[in-house]
Amino acid sequence: MIAYLIRRILYAIPILIGVNLLTFALFFVINTPDDMARMQLGMKRVTPEAIEKWKQQRGYDKPLMFNAQAAGTQKLSDTIFFKKSASMFVFDFGYSDDGRSISREIVTRMLPSLVIALPTFVVGLLLYVTFALLMTLFRGTLLDMAGVTLCVILMSISSLFYIIGGQFLVSKLWHWVPISGYAGGVDSLRFIVLPVLIGIAGGIGASSRWYRTIFLEEVGRDYVRTARAKGLSELRVLFKHVLKNAMIPILTGVVAVIPLLFMGSLLTESFFGIPGLGSYTIDAIQAQDFGVVRAMVFLGSALYIVGLILTDISYTVVDPRVRLQ
Amino acid sequence: MIKLVLLWTDAMIFLLFAVAIMGVWWIRRRPHLLLPWKRLFKSRVGMVSMLILSLFIVIGLLDSFHYRVRLPDNGNGQTVYAAEVLSVFDTLVGDLRSHTEKTYSAPLAVYLYAKESMEMPDGKTLRDYPRLKYGGAHLLDTQQNHVGDLVKRGLTGMFVGGLSGALLALLIVYIAAVRSRIGIREWINKQQKSPLNALLVTFVLIAILGGVIVNLAGAYHVLGTDKVGQDVLYLSLKSIRTGLVIGTVTTLVMLPFALFLGIAAGYFRGWVDDVIQYIYTVLSSIPSVLLIAAAVLMMQVTIEKHAEWFSSSVERADLRLLFLCLILGVTSWTGLCRLLRGEALKLRELEYIQAAQAFGVSSLRILSRHILPNVMHIVLISVVMDFSALVLAEAVLSYVGVGVDPSTNSFGTLINNARLEMGRDPMVWWTLAAAFSFMLVLVLSANLFADAVRDAFDPRLNRTGDV
After folding, report:
1. How far is A304 from chain B (nearest CA, A)?
2. Mean pLDDT of the residues in chain B
């Protein structure tokens, strides 16, 4: 197990290097820092001095990969690649355009993101699985068909609609909770109710339908027939035996997402004005703050790889037959 | 005289259309390929959603024939063309495009949304809702005639649309029955189990709805107007093309990668497999929104830098749309690639592949003749299933600011421009409502169609006694 984990973590390194090289190519090779400066400062009437200053402020005035003028190891280390890309491996993300440390910003913004994303994830998962199990219980009946139809309709609605419609109905029309905003501590409860509810509602269609397919596949197995023959009630068969055996396919999709919860949801956070990582990313995209976008890309892929490893571990927890080696 | 304009995405759409027609021609003559399609044609939900989808496709295709109108001679003998690029669809809808009001107006309204100071004939100024320039302009006394006129036009449109729809449907059925050469009555009896009835009902319903809308749109803004007074119905219809382009061209660009790399990884295994797996693990480990955002930001820089590439803003917006499709394709091919790799791994162990290898058939030939045809059902199912997800993704990306060009009509830009309108008082709901309902109809029918396709093509579903 330990050996397997070490191997998986070692395997993650080349992937992170790939991500790093890809973002480096995307941000510095396809377009030179000069182009980016010109884009941000305005295309016309920008003096070369202004470009130089822009580059100097961000540390983009060095050579890309190899600094021939420097001495010794500085030949490699005093370059954009080393300073901007390779440094991300130690989670040193540098500074954003407004001069703040990106790393510190990420640490402080993780909590609000998690406060929204975690309840959405947990409550949502429980709800989807229950809904799917109920549909499986009534499989083949009108109730099941109505459930599936509802799911298909719900998953055909744009996520933007859930947010805009929910904000309008709950906050503007009924005045139950504030439209947007965020506060720390217990006070945050009234701010997070609506985004969490909307997050859950947005996923119900696709997820429930997917879990229903998984459960239906299990229901046809022999052990289910045996359980029924023993005289177990259908509810007990479903919630105990089928659910346990369907865990592997469910975990495959679910566990990988858990680390990404830190990143928050782009849309929800920007609509509800929550100072999390999602709105941080969106603001950076809209302000064309390349440093922040680069940092988020790297962080996102690192978390994704952690998710993949967690998925493997979770298999051993729910299924004793799985041995990692 | 006109000058034809072939935009990049137009070319892609035509290419796709040509491929589709060739595919139909190819499959028609091969019974084993025809079989799943026959199963699909028996599905009621599948056929009805296909009918609705084809309506969208027709609008999108009409909107893809672009041209520029020749301007009247300026005297020095040069032929000059208007800067504005129009499409056949623009010509068909006629005044809908050019009839712009001053600002917002509610659906079917005759008055503007906002009050204005108006100079009266006797010199006084009056602050009131001004009449619309085009909406209900033919009405003399708006107080009395407005509702009556709406009802009259609506009913006429319903009647004419329904009647012509029914006649057309009957004609098609008649031709089909005559061509079958088994007698009309017998042919109709044979259709008892087919989705023909549902299709005809949907067809007539669409015709009725179309009749009402066409008749009302002649004199009113059926879905109101937006902030700068453009007709929302027109904007929504124009958005369809963008949605279709994103949903289909993306697939077109990613398919060769996914197909070739997926099959090659599964078939050759060894280092080829390792390299390909490495590539798609790297790509799929970046959260797709972030990768798209990063790529689109960089694309914007490139487009800004090379302003000389584009002769008009339409071309620029179009190339940006194409780039977006490319980027979406790059981020979305990994899923299909993984599926195909798994399938190829399974297929290469089967006897007929082993036999081909033993006979000394070249790898390339085995891949193209023996493996490729046997994974096509996976490709088709996943392509159809991706479509609706891509249409939905476009709206989100355009909201985030990394989607299509702000000047391109799309559901995303419609929603993005209208997102603050709910806060107005009185509320401006019609733009959002129009964009969301058009999207819902498109995505819902695509989802239902995808389900029908999966049911018809998935070999794992065991069927007894079909076709």
Report:
1. 6
2. 86
Residues A224, A225, A231, A236, Cα dihedral to 10°:
20
What gap in Å lies between CA B90 and CA B62, rounded to an integer?
A: 9
Are B207 and B162 spatial neighbours (Cβ–Cβ below 8 Å)?
yes
Q: How far, in Å, CA of B288 to CA of B465, rounded?
A: 43
Tell whether the model's pLDDT for residue A214 goes beyond 60.
yes
Q: What is the pLDDT of residue A325?
A: 66
Residue A44 has pLDDT above 70, yes or no: no
Distance from C-alpha of B111 to C-alpha of B456, rounded to nearest angstrom: 52
Distance separating alpha carbons of residues B316 and A90, to the nearest angstrom: 40
Give chain B positions within 8 Å (CB) of A15: 278, 281-282, 285
Determine which helix (DSSP H) or strand (DSSP E) holds B128, and give its type and residue range. strand B125-128
Which of the four pLDDT bands, split at 50, 70 and 90, describes residue B465?
very low
How is residue A170 annotated by DSSP?
I
- Worst-scoring range by mean pLDDT, A161-175, A208-222, B141-155, B366-380? B141-155
Residue B423 tokens, joined: 């806060």
Distance of CA B284 to the CA centre of its chain: 26
Q: ipTM of the assembly?
A: 0.87
Element (H, E) at B178: helix B142-179
Q: From the list A30, A158, A263, which residue is nearest B436 (CB)? A: A158
Q: What is the DSSP string of A13-78?
A: HHHHHHHHHHHHIIIIISS-HHHHHHHHH-SSS--HHHHHHHHHHHT--S-SS--SSS-TTHHHHS
